[in-house]
Specification:
The protein has 161 residues and is an alpha+beta fold. Helix content is 46%, strand content 12%. The protein has four helices and four strands, in the order βαβααββα. Strands 1-3-4-2 form a four-stranded antiparallel beta sheet. α1 packs antiparallel against α4. The protein is elongated, with a radius of gyration of 25 Å.
Length: 161
Amino acid sequence: MQNTSLISQRSRSRPVRSGTRRSKILDYIARQGGELRSESGQGLRRQICEALGERPAPVSQALLALEKAGLLEREIDVERRRCHAIRLVSGPAGGPGSNRPPSDSPGGPERRRIRAELEAAEQDLADSIRRAAEASRRVQHLRWSLLRAPEGRPEDTGGTG
């Protein structure tokens, strides 16, 4: 009997931006029906790498980040350190953190992909607003500094008269 555990951390982190390695991985898994499975526990990462033309190390890092973000979960054989399944976490139909397979939720992988893109766009908007606010504060500070700075005499042009 295999000692397996379902690893899934549900912390909230930055959503996935469109066009990134993480979004490509999510899209690939969604196109495969929302789940990749290997009875032997081998070849899932390699399958993703070959499909996306990526190297193993960055794919492993992306999978860890997606798992920590609660966007996918992996079924791991802890003793053998092998991953038997990688699946997208179901959307709102299954509730946050639901272990229901993606095929049970209406819209399935396409809905999750759109939701991930929406979250990424919302995060981009929030980041843009934050950057604009920082720029505004900097402009205000520089204007204030300019008003407080002593006015200097016109620079000598270096000519002798």
